[in-house]
Design brief:
The protein is built from three helices and two strands, in the order αββαα. By secondary structure, the chain is an alpha+beta fold. A two-stranded antiparallel ribbon has the order 1-2. A hairpin with a 2-residue loop joins strand 1 and strand 2. The longest helix has 18 residues. About 0% of the residues are buried.
Amino acid sequence: MNDTATTTLSSKGQVVIPEEIRSRLGLKAGAQFVVVGDRDVVILKRLEPPALNEFSALVAKARRSAKQAGVKPSDVAKAVAKVRRVK
């Protein structure tokens, strides 16, 4: 990490990422992050959806894994229905 900056947590739990860091990382409004906290460390990792050409490979890998595990389409439908009832 070359650049460091300080920021403040607002009363609403919001943190502003300083402009120079947003610019360097190409962060735009609406960017999504996963947040990891451990003791006194908070890490923000930008989430990026896979490119369309990568998505097909991910779907194929998931289907192969599901087939090897013996997961049937009806199992998926049941799991989705169960989760929807819980909410």
